[in-house]
């Protein structure tokens, strides 16, 4: 199951658990929808005319970012919490999460009067840690990964007699996440394809069961990052070691669920991988075009279409799930800044001029006359590599686009100023 060799899209038998029973069925998903109705937002779905026109792919978006906690995870968390016995509620619950499951459990546990402890791995964005604490949970930061955080959570569970609320590998959680597909297909019945991020697999597993039952011909495409292709590698029988950190930390799961991988193997048609640059670009496209803020995992579906457009330009209508919007503020600022650089709207120019009064002022004048804006100046005298009669300084300029930057450089050179564009970021395709 790779992007190069997708399996058949035909509906396969219901995935079986170890005892020969299906992990979940459409009835479980429908029951979950009734169970959580009124306590979880039925999020809107809408066509994206602009993205569709730019990419040449008919696109509809499901805005799970509009949940109270900013992510779909509330659905599965609440469905599981409502199944607790009175004794389990009194003792409390524990979960491990990189953020969105944590906030989903914390929010609904507080609403239901259930004590909640959340173990979060080191490196979890501060915004998610703070958000979880603000929702009343006791947050324990431990472990370098979700696997290590899970081990810490198990120790605390055993010591305190708590009930563990798994982020993805639980039938009630999977069924809760599947309600996204029930809503999406009711809102946009003519969807031909669902493009869904994969971390542990709870969202895509639940959605696949629901969607393939309602509409057997629909194609389910999972998206993982190149840094964390865990589900794809596990299903291919290959060992997996994370390559690096990713901005899509919400789907940076080293070990996908045992239950979820059964469903994915049976019902998911393809898994494609995306790189960090396209994730960053997708985040920016959704800000600029759709006017919404998403985290890396939430942008994964659009990143797949940006990076593999020919894979999706087959006339099928694609439904993308914007599954989470809890991006760290610093990461968001960096994404926006880097995209400005990729688009040529923010450039760093290295200028070499005679070391005499007015050199910097002359450069600034030319920049202003070209309709550009100077944001920063880095003036080096002690460590410059130019002859002593010259000065070297860097100017960060804001322009309309890459062509505008090129015209500005031409204007500077026509005035006898030696200039070089030293903005060294790759420029991936962009919507």
UniProtKB/TrEMBL annotation:
Gene3D superfamilies: 3.30.70.260, 3.40.50.1100. Keywords: Lyase, Pyridoxal phosphate. Residues 348-427 form the ACT domain. CDD domains: ACT_ThrD-II-like, Thr-dehyd. InterPro entries: ACT-like_dom_sf, ACT_dom, ACT_ThrD-II-like, Ser/Thr_Dehydratase, Thr_deHydtase_catblc, TrpB-like_PALP, TrpB-like_PALP_sf. Its cofactor is pyridoxal 5'-phosphate. GO terms for biological process: isoleucine biosynthetic process; L-serine catabolic process; L-threonine catabolic process. One of its GO terms (molecular function) is pyridoxal phosphate binding. It catalyses: L-serine = pyruvate + NH4(+). Pfam families: ACT, PALP. Belongs to the serine/threonine dehydratase family. This is Threonine dehydratase.
């Amino acid at each position: 199951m790779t992007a190069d060799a997708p399996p058949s899209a035909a509906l396969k038998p219901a995935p079986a658990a170890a005892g020969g029973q299906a992990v979940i069925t459409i009835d479980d998903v429908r029951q979950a929808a009734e169970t959580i109705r009124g306590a979880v937002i039925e999020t809107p779905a809408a066509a994206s005319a602009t993205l569709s026109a730019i990419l040449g792919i008919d696109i509809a978006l499901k805005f799970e970012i509009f949940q109270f906690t900013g992510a779909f995870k509330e659905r599965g968390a609440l469905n599981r919490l409502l199944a607790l016995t009175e004794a389990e509620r009194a003792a409390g619950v524990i979960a491990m999460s990189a953020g969105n499951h944590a906030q989903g459990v914390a929010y609904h546990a507080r609403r239901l009067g259930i004590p909640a402890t959340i173990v979060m791995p080191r490196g979890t964005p501060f915004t998610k840690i703070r958000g979880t604490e603000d929702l009343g949970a006791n947050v324990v930061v431990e472990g370098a990964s979700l696997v290590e955080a899970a081990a810490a959570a198990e120790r605390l569970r055993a010591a305190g007699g708590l009930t563990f609320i798994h982020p993805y590998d639980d039938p009630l959680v999977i069924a809760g996440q599947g309600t996204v597909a029930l809503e999406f297909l009711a809102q946009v019945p003519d969807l031909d394809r669902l493009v869904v991020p994969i971390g542990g697999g709870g969202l895509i597993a639940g959605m696949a069961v629901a969607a393939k039952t309602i509409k057997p011909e629909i194609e389910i495409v999972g998206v993982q990052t190149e840094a964390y292709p865990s589900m794809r590698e596990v299903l291919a029988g290959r060992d997996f070691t994370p390559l690096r950190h990713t901005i899509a930390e919400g789907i940076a799961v080293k070990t996908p669920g045992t239950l979820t991988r059964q469903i994915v193997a049976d019902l998911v048609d393809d898994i494609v991988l995306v790189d960090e640059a396209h994730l960053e670009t997708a985040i920016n496209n959704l800000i600029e075009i759709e006017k919404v803020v998403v985290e890396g995992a939430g942008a994964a579906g659009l990143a797949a279409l940006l990076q593999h457009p020919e894979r999706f330009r087959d006339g099928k209508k694609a439904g993308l799930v914007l599954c989470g919007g809890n991006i760290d503020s610093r990461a968001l600022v960096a994404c926006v800044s880097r995209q400005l650089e990729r688009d040529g709207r923010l450039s760093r120019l290295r200028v070499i001029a005679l070391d005499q009064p007015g050199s910097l002022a002359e450069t600034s004048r030319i920049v202003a006359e070209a309709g550009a804006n100077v944001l920063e100046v880095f003036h080096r005298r002690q460590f410059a590599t130019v002859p002593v009669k010259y000065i070297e300084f860097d100017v960060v300029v804001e322009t309309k686009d890459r062509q505008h930057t090129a015209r500005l450089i031409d204007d500077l050179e026509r005035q006898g100023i030696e200039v070089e564009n030293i903005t060294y970021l790759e420029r991936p395709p962009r919507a």
